[in-house]
Amino acid sequence: MRRLRVGTRRSQLATTQTGAVVAALKKERSDLEIETVEIVTRGDQILDVSLSKVGGKGLFVSEIEKALQDGVIDIAVHSAKDVPAILAQGLVIGAIPPREDPRDLLIAKNGQTLRDLPEGARVGTSSLRRRAQLLAIRPDLEVVPLRGNIDTRLRKLQDLDAIVLAAAGIHRMGWLSGQRVQAEGVSYDVTPLTPFECVPAAGQGALAIECREQDTEVLQLLAAIHDRETERCVMAERAFLAEVGGSCQVPVGAYAAPSFSRLNLAAMLADARGNVVLRGAMMGENARELGRELALRMLAGGGDRLLAMTYEV
Ligand SMILES: NCc1[nH]cc(CCC(=O)O)c1CC(=O)O
């Protein structure tokens, strides 16, 4: 293999993430010629409608998967949390590099924490998972829809009191220094939300590199940038998500951390309005079984009824 074509979405975050993966691969194989191919997905084009309405996160991935299947590209770099539970025919995740900070960040215009935002403050997020968990702590907040790439969302903070973004994205962009985010000519204090306050999305902070199942040479190359511990955590989180049938219509969070030889998995399920938030945690050895087991327990413990409640949001 002499040439590798890498598919990426066109957002600033996507191209930055892809650039980091390309650099890591070049370090492994300096003779390799790597070409980056930008793909505009439907999810990138439809920015004014909430994701739960236009068909979910798969929108960002399905066109890229087609390019892999058609041989237009050889690998695709995704944010692990954007990858659906079931991959397209003939494709596999070839590598999961070491995870970044998995937490969500509260970025308040005047530097407040979640506790000292003023009564009725307007907080921007289109994620049902973030919305439910914010309202569980501060029922008085007005949570308003906020879509677009992370640069766009940061700019929209001008018209709001606060927004919530993943730490990983901000960090990979090089916009986070200490407790401040500096980007697009603005600078704000940030407060990380702990996984107890706001359980992250399954896979948040991790990248997933997808390729063709049959491409043994590519799989061999990707093994060099793979992190087995991150994979184990992400597997437990995704097993939880798959078992609860996580679509964008339901607020679901799952976060696993290694604890000696075992994994500690924390998860949350809520109804779409965020009136009821159900939390659970469990330790286990086998990542997939742990994710499934915690999901089954939480569904049996009332989660099934939460998921059955659907609303127009
Ligand atoms: N849904 C978009 C998306 N996909 C991955 C990230 C952040 C980076 C990551 O989690 O790895 C973001 C932005 C955000 O949620 O703030």
TrEMBL record:
Cofactor note: Binds 1 dipyrromethane group covalently.
Cofactor: dipyrromethane
Keyword Glycoprotein in record: no
Modified residues (S-(dipyrrolylmethanemethyl)cysteine): C248
Associated pathway: Porphyrin-containing compound metabolism; protoporphyrin-IX biosynthesis; coproporphyrinogen-III from 5-aminolevulinate: step 2/4
Domain Porphobilinogen deaminase N-terminal: 4-219
Gene Ontology CC: cytoplasm
GO biological process: protoporphyrinogen IX biosynthetic process
InterPro entries named in the record: HemC (IPR000860), Porphobilin_deaminase_cofac_BS (IPR022419), Porphobilin_deaminase_N (IPR022417), Porphobilinogen_deaminase_C (IPR022418), Porphobilinogen_deaminase_C_sf (IPR036803)
Keyword annotations: Porphyrin biosynthesis, Transferase
Annotated GO MF terms: hydroxymethylbilane synthase activity
PANTHER family, A to Z: PORPHOBILINOGEN DEAMINASE
Subunit structure comment from the entry: Monomer.
Function: Tetrapolymerization of the monopyrrole PBG into the hydroxymethylbilane pre-uroporphyrinogen in several discrete steps.
The protein's name: Porphobilinogen deaminase
Gene coding for it: hemC
